[in-house]
Design goal:
7 strands, globular, 15% strand, 208 residues
Length: 208
């Protein structure tokens, strides 16, 4: 088994409400984009420019240096930085995008998504951890480089994972996804594959 499933299940079991994010959310659909790189962000910005009326986006970039955050602020109109949320004027839910400019919150924020986009899929090394989003019952979208990860191939085959290379493809995927159905598949996949840690510890106790 794979103990990563147990780690995300444990993290999800300790989830607590995130007041700042809840104040940001309006009555629109929410796309949470985590661990994004430049290629992901440019694709997302191109898509989002046409869908701000229907969606809000929360983007947690892989790189939080000031110059990268400034670039993101220019890419995503109507944004607010997470660090400025306490001083938002007018109210937070009037903003169309939130940029997470610190670390440590992403795995909790995935729970608020309608659909999750996991970044890194335009790099040769592949995308970041899709299980952090799948554990909350969310459909997963990544860039095209997913083959190195069994869980991504599994989710794609099951109908809970999707890959895109362009903003047009992202639009098409979002139009065809049933988030409830795909999300339930993702959650069941994670739960079914849990338990490796317990099995390993049992083996150690019996054999050492």
């Amino acid at each position: 088994g794979d103990t990563r499933f147990d780690r995300v299940l444990e993290a999800a079991s300790q989830w607590k409400p995130f007041e700042t994010v809840e104040q940001f959310i309006s009555n629109k659909k929410i796309l949470v984009a985590g661990s994004t790189w430049k290629e992901d962000e440019e694709l997302l910005a191109q898509w989002f420019s046409n869908y701000k009326d229907d969606w809000q986006i929360i983007i947690a970039p892989h790189e939080i240096k000031r110059e990268n955050l400034e670039r993101l602020s220019n890419l995503f109109a109507g944004n607010i930085f997470f660090s400025n949320a306490d001083h938002a004027s007018p109210s937070l839910n009037t903003y169309s995008s939130m940029i997470i400019d610190n670390i440590g919150h992403l795995s909790n924020i995935y729970r608020y998504a309608t659909v999750c986009y996991v970044g890194g899929g335009f790099n040769k090394s592949g995308h970041h951890n899709v299980l952090e989003a799948a554990v909350y019952g969310k459909p997963i979208i990544t860039g095209p480089s997913f083959q190195k990860f069994k869980e991504s191939a599994d989710l794609k085959n099951l109908g809970a994972g999707f890959t895109v290379e362009t903003a047009e493809q992202l639009t098409q995927v979002l139009e065809k996804i049933n988030p409830s159905v795909a999300g339930q598949i993702a959650m069941e996949y994670v739960k079914t594959n849990g338990g490796a840690t317990k099995q390993i510890m049992q083996w150690v106790q019996e054999n050492l």
